[in-house]
Here is the input.
Amino acid sequence: MPANLTPQYHKAEEVYKQAKTSEEKIAALEEMLRAMPKHKGTDHLQADLKRRIAKLREEESRPKSKKAAFDPFRVEKGGAGQVLLLGAPNAGKSAIVARLTSAPTQPTPFPFATQGPIPGMMAHEDVQVQLVDLPPITPDYFPSGMLGLVKSADGALLVADLSSDLVLDDLETILAKVSEGRVRLFDPAVQTAGAPADSDEVLLVRIPALLLANKGDADGAQDRLELLRELYQGRFDPLVISAETQEGLDRLPGAVFGMLKRIRIYSKEPGKPVDRSSPFVLKEGDTVLDLAARIHRDFPEHLKQARVWGSARFEGQAVQRDYVLRDRDVVELQVDL
Here is the structure.
């Protein structure tokens, strides 16, 4: 079957050939994967692109030599995804992380108390999501190391301070700073990541994000919230919370997991009960073949059959290796090693 690759794919491929850094190569490869038609004719090409992306990411995550400069903004990823909190001074980022995780972050009434990234794990049902508290972003402060962390993250929480009359200016500063670094934040519930208009846009890093309207209990918060909704209509849908009163925080783990577009898959060995203790976390759109590769690198080559409970038409149905999985599916793989 012919691959029938799109013009967007070839444009991204050309950008990949010209890319100099691992970051640029990963962005171009991911765009090639996104723009590629998904059918049997591209199975091998999809697998090759995913291997190349994984290899580049592995190289990026390897410890640098002792002679290499220390990067204070390097945070090893954990859980179902890494989500950064971006905000102005005193927006309440640390208070949110403290409420939702056991991270050693200390909310304070004065700005710049957070000097470096502080990760913590937030529970959502049977998975964990990594939240990372970051120093505030201002017109005069946005170090390159922080930009690198933003580019590698799986998602972001843009924290707006509803107690401040400068809330709109603060948000515009943050969005401008990340945009200068070729990062586009978008709310996947409101808009798509968008197809690149030209080869330059291929190198844009698109990060899913939620706009958290914090301090919803403050005086004048409702008026400032209306301004937020008016300014960001069609781009972000503000989620009103209060780290102080905990208003809306119970909805945040589910909203974050949904933003990440992840699915949980439970494995089942032939003739044995389902293992629901620790689901495999995959991306929406991933297939049986992707699950096999996640379990063991040799499984895709030796996969004989797969059976699915949940999204299949009937329980335990035998499916093809390109079958697209759904959240909470149970999968039994039969491999011939």
